[in-house]
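User: Some background: our group keeps a shared notebook of sequences we're curious about, and every so often someone picks one and asks for a predicted structure to add to the entry. Today it's my turn. The entry only has the sequence so far, pasted here. Could you supply the structure so I can complete it?
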Amino acid sequence: MFEIDLKPLFNEPGAKLDIDHTLDLSDLEFSDTKPFTTPAAIKGVVRNDTGIVSMKAVVTVLYSGNCDRCAKEVTREYTVSMEHTFVTELNDDQNDEFMLVPTMRFDLEGLATEDVILGLPTKFLCEEDCKGICPTCGKNLNEGPCGCKKEIDPRLSALAALLADE
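Assistant: Of course. Here's the predicted structure to add to the notebook entry:
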């Protein structure tokens, strides 16, 4: 937990606070693996612009895991943007555009961890055009064709029989 005190920022328009922090994400576990082996870097600034306290930061993290299509082990660097506006009170409880900080403090590590998890892609691929593996023989199709004959969908077998007669 790394708390940032916003009280000096709320009380002084034009004030700013630079952020340069490392975040250990090695405790996070996805599908029985721990994809974050090195600390994430958080860099940004929290500032009061005309009475509005906001934060703009970037979290850079190395993510290691298996490709969701071909299972190849890959490590990739991701950069996740963080933008939040802080308020001490809300008029509308349903408003999720602002982050409520009634004590004028917030946990940077907790917020960054949440933003990293939400900012990662839902599919982790080794390459954008990964071909995956053959469902019949299991060969990695990125390394070339496997030679297996494509199975015909049973619903289309009557059409395939017509084509075979030609």
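Suggested note for the entry: The CA atoms of residues 22 and 41 lie 5 Å apart. The chain has a mean pLDDT of 88.
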